[in-house]
Amino acid sequence: MSIWWSLHLRREAASVPLARRLFIGTMETAGVDPDVSYDLSVALSEACANAVEHGGDGTHAGCSEAYRVTAYLDGEKCRIEVADSGPGFTPFPDVRPVRSDAEHGRGLCLIRELADHVHIGGKPGRGGTVVSFDKILKWKKDPSLLTA
Fold this sequence. Notes:
Elements (H helix, E strand, L loop, with lengths): L1 E9 L4 H16 L3 H21 L11 E9 L2 E7 L23 H8 L2 E6 L6 E8 L7 H4 L1
Antiparallel strand pairs: 1-2, 2-3, 3-5, 4-5
Helix pairs in contact: 1-2, 2-3
């Protein structure tokens, strides 16, 4: 089974739970194991929160006011990409573990812990950052998408 969807979201805090709910609904309908769906949804939330907080500089009319979430379920793997129009990381981010009680800086560490593979980089030829991560999927016994 292959499913692909993409969302173009405003850089507002309310967009984070919206993206997470849509993702979880898709995963549930496709029959993905709830524990795997939960891990990926937490990673997605962290990536979206980073795009909302850091994903624009406010100088380009409309350009930096949105970010994009794309999810691919293809066979046994799910890949998620969150792309923004912010200044990007210069140099590449040094993602180190932070204290568990820290209020900031845990997002990229959580994504790395919850996903099988993570890539953080810039958009070729443009500003912004793309956070992509994937995970091997596990399936429920009776997925509703296959029995409908």
